[in-house]
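Q: Convert this sequence to structure tokens.
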Amino acid sequence: MNRGFTLVELVVVMTLIVILTFVAVPRLSQNTLELSGQAEQVASDIRRAQSLSMTRGAALGSQGRYCVFFTATGSQFRHNGNSYATPCTVAFAHPATGSSAAIVLSGSAVSPMNLSGNYVEFDTKGQPTSFAAPNSDATILLTATGGPRTVVISPVTGKVRVQ
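A:
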């Protein structure tokens, strides 16, 4: 008896390999990986602003609030200058860059949703104070050629997750 694969078996295996390649390659493209990294960076920045509000803000009293302000292509760390009247207006240095300039996300568009302004601000308990609908999650949609990524912020706890 001859051992080996038939032509039909080889064609079926090659077809499966081609289909899997067309499904897997777009998901692992450089743009997708870059966008995922950018979404994680935005989530990390939001967590940092929450942490600063709970530590530094609490030391300044109930008015000390920190936030992340969103532009069309990035974000910026800000605080309220210890005044409820001026929410999220004073820029301060990003820990990674040392600059107070906005971080520009390469090739990405940023769209915040369910925020009263273009920022997410936290009180001294770490709770978000800038939600337009206080009982619903806020989302920051990052869009690029690799597909969208969403950063979701819980309204009560301020928990941040990337989807």
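The first strand starts at residue 66 and ends at 70.
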